[in-house]
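#struct-help
A.M.: can someone run this one for me? Single chain, 341 residues.
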Amino acid sequence: MAISNGRQLEYREAINEALLQEMEADPSTFIIGEEIAGGAGREHLGIEDAWGGAFRTTRGLIQKFGRKRVLDTPISEAGFIGAAVGAATVGSRPIAELMFSDFFGVAADPILSNAAKMRYMYGSQIKVPITLLTRIGAGTRSAAQHSQSFYSVFSHFPGLKCVLPSDPYTAKGLLLSAIRDDDPVIFCEHKLLYPEKGEVPEESYTLPIGKGRILKEGTDVTIVGMARMTSVAMEAANNLLKSDINAEVIDLLSVSPIDYDLILESVKKTSRLVVVDEDTPRCSVASEISAVMTEEAFDYLDAPPLRVNAPHTPVPYPQHLESLYIPNAERVEKVVNKLFV
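D.P.: on it. Structure tokens below:
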């Protein structure tokens, strides 16, 4: 258990600290991706680590570890992620940065055909300890090709693990766990969480992959959130107290594996379930959890499980439409109230 000291870090700072600490501790780790060290080929300008990647999470690493362990690449996701997968099979622990989860399709083959399957196909004679950092989430006016939340896609494929930290504390702990894991782990960073501050211990600590947590105990309904939707669920739960509805809030943290046991025990107590998921609704994590709880907790449910998803549409660019696209606390409250009619 990490020791609390009241120190506050931003979400992006917690990620940066996890990278720094693990690269210091393990010389087999390196990080590879686009613009993570100031942009490839800019040495003649004297620019090095000008920004620390598109979201400043790799700031300072190039000065600390040099260009052999912090590698800028051309814009070729299939190429550098494929190289990282290969390095993982021969003893390294690479960290590859896929700038946006929207770019997953460009690198699908090395991720799905190789990283996800090689350990199984070779009977565990090799390991594939690659960590794939990527970004999810709407709300930054980045339009349809830079705003999606593809974690349901990653959750679908056996052999991949996928985590969704919801605050600075879970960001650092889950990233350290991901880097040390012997299987490929997709680490999803929500873009709107980067400036959020929270208490983060200075020492190295890990959080178990596949385990959620209860952020608020309640008796009337279980609300499951993930990534930024956890804070939306908490806001809704606090507002629902005004209507004498005491909601229990679960922070999922991992969508592969999913902590079904935690959700099941909560639903047995509350008899109602709402899942808040920023991904589009068809074949979503919310759909999966609702289906499993219908099968496993049918005798405990007083109402059908309900979902709060983004609509089945690309993410719109105009700000007023993008705001309507993203699930918010008001929508969650309306859906919860349907369970008590």
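A.M.: thanks! Residues 11-25 form the longest helix (15 residues).
D.P.: also worth noting: The chain has twelve helices and 14 strands.
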